[in-house]
Each structure stands twice: as structure tokens, then as C-alpha cells.
Amino acid sequence: MDTLKLIALDEEDLQILSAHLQDAVLKVGDIEYLAAEKKLVLGANRFVWELAADGKRRRSFERRRSALLFDRVGKVQVTGIDRRHTNDILALLTISFIVTDAPSGFIELTFAAGKALRLEVEAIEAQLTDLGPAWETSFKPEHED
């Protein structure tokens, strides 16, 4: 499977990134806000949904190390995440956008257990890139309806 490289420049694109990153896991220490550069970068182990959703019965699935970059970030607000606990694990549920004064708004990264990041952005500019080879996992994330 080829590595994934996606760019998001609008809300529809951001929904596609969110779908690929659903159930990604990362450590708090994998999040870096570069205020002077107006960037937020995070590294995550994403579940490869595009393979799992192909309809074939599988005994194993894949995860890949990926980088997610947000540009034009003016401010970051945190809910339920303690930056001092760099080894705490976060499970990403969704990424959404709330328009304030188009194209400006808030990008919200919602994690399990009520944790979240809220990015104040001038506009949506995000990139998702797989960084290396996949590894096997027998666990497929499941969600209640």
C-alpha cells in the first residue's frame, strides 16, 4: 500500500483527514505548538481504515506512523490534557471545523475521555503524511451505534 499524503484547504477536505485519522493514538508529548511559526504538529499512529473498509475478512489490520500539520494557527486551547504528562495516550475521535468569520474559525480535535484541542485558525490549512511502513495489529477499533 502506498503512503498517504493529503492536504485540507476547506471543511470538506478536513472531514476526509478526520476519517483517515479516526482512532489514531498518540502521546501528549507528540503534540508540538510552534507559536512563532503559527503551526501545530502532531505525530500519531493512525489505523489504516482504507484497508479495513475494503470489505474483505481480515485477521489482521494495519497502523502507520503519520504526521499531521496545521498552519495559520493563532492560538491553541486545551481541555483535559496535561502537557506535563508527556506519556499519556490520546485516542483521536474526530476533527471538525467551526466557522467564526470565514475563512477563520476553530479546528477542534476531539479525543476520547472528554479531551480536546481547539485551534484558532485564519483558514483551514492542514497536511497529513504517512512517515513510514505499516505494522500489523489484530485489533480493529469498534464504536457503538
UniProtKB/TrEMBL annotation:
It comes from the Bacteria. InterPro entries: DUF2948. This is DUF2948 domain-containing protein.
